[in-house]
Write a structure and sequence with these properties.
- The protein folds into 2 domains: about 1-65 and about 140-190, 3-Layer(aba) Sandwich (Rossmann fold), CATH 3.40.50; about 75-135, no CATH class.
- The N and C termini lie far apart (about 55 Å).
- The chain is α/β, with parallel strands linked by helices.
- The protein has helices at about 40-50, 80-90, 100-105, 120-135, 150-165; strands at about 5-10, 15-25, 30-35, 55-60, 65-70, 135-140, 170, 180-185.
- The radius of gyration is 19 Å and the shape is globular.
- It binds adenosine-5'-triphosphate.
- Adenosine-5'-triphosphate (ATP) binds next to helix 1.
- It comes from Seohaeicola nanhaiensis.
Length: about 200
């Protein structure tokens, strides 16, 4: 099943951000969102993840199929690394956290309270979480932030494995992961703000 956006417009804090974004993401494929800071990549990804509704347009193939990794990693600080993954596995009804621990070399940190991890270690845990969701569509917002070069390689490997298994990935990233991906440039979709055409009149 494809993820399909048809003329989707999104707003942040009530302000229109992006207008009429259409895309299709097929199983096994990756798509990278590009655009300058503030254009609305995070807002669009949050909308696809179901965290906020679109202002206009339709999204198909996302419901119950998306695993989202955003800036806040969704980590429970008072649970250990292993407990965090086991918690998410139970939430998503999957079993086994071994592969997720191994993919990001988290075995040695399994007993550590997640709140005590470094930024990069937290990000590795947040990305490992995707693997226990069992969800086919990964929606990733700047997934490599805080990762060192080696961990970026682990992430790229995890995405490749996910795509090879028929999953898909939609991500906002500024770095080249060496993964074959289509690119959607969002600069041409900047929402036009309503004109303040009666600005002076407001002071009359
Ligand atoms: N919580 C918020 N409330 C109101 N406006 C916000 C909020 N968060 C972001 N914005 C604004 O919404 C617009 C889109 O922001 P968004 O984070 O989606 O952009 P982005 O393309 O992901 O940016 P970046 O590349 O810097 O991460 C920006 O103008 C931003 O200032």
């Amino acid at each position: 099943m494809e993820l399909i956006l048809d003329r989707v417009s999104v707003a942040r804090g009530g302000v229109p951000v992006l207008a009429e974004v259409s895309l299709r993401l097929a199983p096994g494929r990756a798509l990278v969102l590009r655009g300058p800071n503030g254009i609305g990549k995070t807002t669009l990804l949050r909308t696809i993840a179901g965290l906020q509704p679109p202002v206009a347009g339709t999204i198909a193939g996302a419901e119950e199929r998306v695993a989202y990794a955003g800036h806040a990693d969704g980590i429970k600080p008072t649970l250990t690394v292993a407990e965090n993954l086991a918690f998410w596995a139970s939430v998503f009804g999957t079993e086994g956290i071994g592969a997720a621990l191994a993919a990001y070399q988290l075995e040695v940190l399994g007993w550590r309270m997640a709140g005590t991890l470094s930024a990069g270690q937290k990000r590795r845990l947040g990305l490992a979480r995707l693997l226990v969701t069992g969800r086919p569509v990964w929606v990733l917002d700047e997934p490599t932030v805080s990762l060192d070069a080696e961990a970026v390689g682990w992430f790229a490997g995890a995405v490749r494995t996910h795509l090879a298994a028929g999953g898909s990935a939609l991500m906002a990233t500024h770095i080249d992961l060496g993964i074959e991906a289509e690119v959607l440039e969002l600069s041409g979709h900047r929402a036009v703000l309503p004109a303040l055409d009666d600005f002076d009149g407001a002071f009359a």
